[in-house]
Amino acid sequence: MPRGGFVLGEGDATPAGPAGRPARSVLLVGQAGAAPWPHFQRWLKRQPTDLEGPLDTWSREIIGGVAAEFGARAASPSDKPYLPFQQWAMRAEGLKPSPLGILMHPAYGLWHAYRGALLFDVEIEMQGPPEQIHLCDLCIGKPCLKSCPVGAYSEAGFAHQACLAHVRGPMGAPCRTGGCLDRNACPQGLAFKYPSQVQAFHMKSFGGF
After folding, report:
1. 167 falls in which pLDDT band (50, 70, 90)?
2. CA–CA dist 136, 81 (Å, integer)
3. Virtual CA dihedral for 131, 140, 195, 93, nearest 10 degrees?
4. Which candidate in 10, 115, 130, 174 could, as Cys together with 59 as Cys, close a disulfide (CB 3.0–4.6 Å)?
5. CB-based burial of residue 15 (10 Å sphere; 0-12 exposed, 13-18 middle, 19+ buried)?
6. Three-class DSSP category at 103
7. CA angle at residue 81 from 96 to 198, to 5 degrees?
8. Which pLDDT does position 118 carry in this prediction?
9. pLDDT at 11
10. d(CA 107, CA 8)
11. How do residues 101-128 score in pLDDT, each as one tens digit?
């Protein structure tokens, strides 16, 4: 689904557009909730079992097809050198990060993602985002910082190694099968919450098990 966009200007990172010149407009593409999951699963059944990065590969295939149809260049968050997708998303939709680093959406909560972008050689006028209420500013209890058994998320940032060790360890089964406990503790956007099998897929990718 389109996730907003804008015209690139001076001072912006300007990756190459479809003609090789600096792109002039960017349109983000992503998801809300797990709506793409059944389509991805049908595609995945036709792929080799050892396919690396299947979700990225599928996203590139889908977004690349749209790019070819509309004369754009497709870009992915995992492309190197990395593009500033989070900064683009904040600008396109007027969002701010949650304490977990995931952008908080007023409707979707933490249950959304950006899977790619369409880069255009021409300036495309797009409506700017409305002023958004940052739900994290209204949250007093901050349950997202209190549910992890090893305190992986805190005001100091993300303790990557502590999280990884716990997820891979004998006490990490709830995280492996049901997803990040801190993320699941957030009360926002529950109608878009990823099912446990989707969260388990992402956690397996994160943990490498």
Report:
1. very high
2. 31
3. 10
4. 115
5. middle
6. strand
7. 55
8. 98
9. 84
10. 27
11. 999 999 999 999 999 999 999 999 898 8
The model's confidence at residue 174, banded by pLDDT at 50, 70 and 90, is very high
Buried b / exposed e along 174-204 (16+ C-beta atoms within 10 A)? ebbebbbbbbbbbebbeebbbeeebbbbebe
Phi, psi angle pair for 5, to nearest 5°: -165, -175
Residues 69 and 24: their CA atoms lie apart, in Å, by 18
Q: Quote the tokens at residue 10.
A: 């001076």
Residues 6 or more apart in contact with residue 57 via CB below 8 angstroms: 47, 51
pLDDT of residue 209: 77
Q: What is the DSSP string of 162-180?
A: HHHHHHHSTT-HHHHHH--
Comparing C-alpha atoms, which of 83, 129, 128, 133 is closest to residue 104?
133
The pTM of the whole model exceeds 0.85 = yes
Q: Which residues of 53-81 are buried (b: 16+ CB within 10 A; e: fewer)?
A: ebbbbbbbebbbeebeeeebbbbbbbeee
